[in-house]
Specification:
This protein has helices spanning 28-44, 58-66, 93-101, 112-126, 140-146, 159-164, 183-196, 210-222, 238-249, 284-297, 319-322, and strands at residues 16-22, 48-51, 69-72, 83-86, 105-108, 130-134, 153-156, 173-177, 228-232, 254-257, 273-278, 300-307. By secondary structure, the chain is an alpha/beta fold. Helix 5 (140-146) links the parallel strand 6 and strand 7 (153-156).
Length: 341
Amino acid sequence: MLAPSARVHQPENAPKKLILLSPRGFCAGVVRAIDVVKIALGLYGAPIYVRKEIVHNRHVVEELKSVGAIFVDELDDVPEGARVIFSAHGVSPAVRTAAKARGLKVIDATCPLVTKVHLEAIKFAREGYTIVLIGHHGHEEVEGTMGEAPTSMRLVETVEDVERLEIADPTKVAHLTQTTLSLDETSDIVRRLKEKFPLIVGPKSQDICYATENRQVAVKAIAPLCDLLLVVGSRNSSNSRRLVEVCEKSGVPAYLIDDFSELKAEWMPKAQSVAITAGASAPETLVQQLIEGLQAHHGFGPVENVEIKEEDVRFNLPQELAASGGRLTSITLPSLPIAQL
């Protein structure tokens, strides 16, 4: 990969170029979660309640609302005995207990890679470890993971947090990670944890998910070849925000936009080569609309597709829906195609 100082610039009179990164957009966990809502609506009819946003994307949520999904912040907003879906970000045991107490019919759309972290937390806690969770305070995934072992877990967001960390038994420490973090920043935090707690242990494989890693690697690879990066994704999407940060650390300006309507004209005059990617919860239709808008209103030419790595990950449906067997049906949304099941 070229160093940031070796960035390639287009001559001023060259055609303005769009570079479309791959992989981008929906990951397997997001596809599965959206499918869960659509299949549940097809099987049981509206309304279907969903605790929190099923995935962190405004457009996805609004489209699912339009066909009968009702999104709530807490289970108290779900009528007793109703059917509720847990989002891809996972929930704590306390939420599961509350759902059972209200007689709710639960469908669990937690991403299997998030479930992996939950199981690791349970294992380490049972073995008597103090668990250092690297993640963002207030994020739904972090709240769910910490709920698995609240008395055994400490949350850190930065290297500075590690410096302030005090643990009663420094010989019995483990670390886990939110799945949607920056690879580089997380690596720095883990490195400092290992320096401070030489006997610290971690998961057998990294917790940052394959899709988060692949999209960051693609951004790093393309940064030297563009003047600007546009990331399609919503503000509350952790993995989307990380893509902006990764690009900016390479010395290239980057912006997170929900869709073409948020594009600002002042970003474009000096940008001869613009790269486009999308967070793991952003629909491909929004990417294509952005491309069309850039071509129609900002003078960009044909798209150059750059594939860094092929993705072919698929996750099975949760058991609550898989058990329905041949009765599977779905609600069809034109911009949110159902995955191959």
